[in-house]
Design the sequence.
């Protein structure tokens, strides 16, 4: 089973607590996902604040408008620093997503590291080359723009 890693780094000109409160609230997930994916949070086992063991369920239509159920568990949280979600049920054979933030001059540096394995062995590897990696890039491009529109562009 081949594994892949996708990393995105984005500076955000905002206070670290403001960024943390936004990214660690499951209600904001749909806002930072392109509308064409029809992403909907269908439930979570807690309130607004993420904690280790929190389970979040979603529906998503990533390909050909086919509706998929997805369940992730928040496995680690260090408030104001990072959290990690792992897929329990969903479209991937393996999904591990690290969300890190750190204070820098002028704001916050946010780093997402996604380690994943598509399903279906070599067919999944071909699908990754043809569209999965591109789709992940498009999702994170959308997130970058959303965060810039809502928090501002980082000035160098």
Sequence:
């Amino acid at each position: 089973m081949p594994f892949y890693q996708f990393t995105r780094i984005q500076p955000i000109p905002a206070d670290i607590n403001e960024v943390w409160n936004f990214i660690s609230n499951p209600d904001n997930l749909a806002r930072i996902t392109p509308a064409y994916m029809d992403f909907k949070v269908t439930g979570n086992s807690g309130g607004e604040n993420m904690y280790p063991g929190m389970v979040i369920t979603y529906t998503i239509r990533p390909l050909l408008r086919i509706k998929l159920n997805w369940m992730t568990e928040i496995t680690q949280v260090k408030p104001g620093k990072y959290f990690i979600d792992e897929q329990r049920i969903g479209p991937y054979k393996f999904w591990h997503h690290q969300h890190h933030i750190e204070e820098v001059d002028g704001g916050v540096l946010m780093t997402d590291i996604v380690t994943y394995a598509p399903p279906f062995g070599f067919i999944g590897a071909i699908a990754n080359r043809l569209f999965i990696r591109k789709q992940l890039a498009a999702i994170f491009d959308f997130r970058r723009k959303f965060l810039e529109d809502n928090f501002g562009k980082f000035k160098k």
Remarks:
- The chain has two helices and seven strands.
- Strands lie at 4-12, 40-44, 55-60, 68-78, 82-89, 94-104, 107-117.
- The chain has a mean pLDDT of 93.
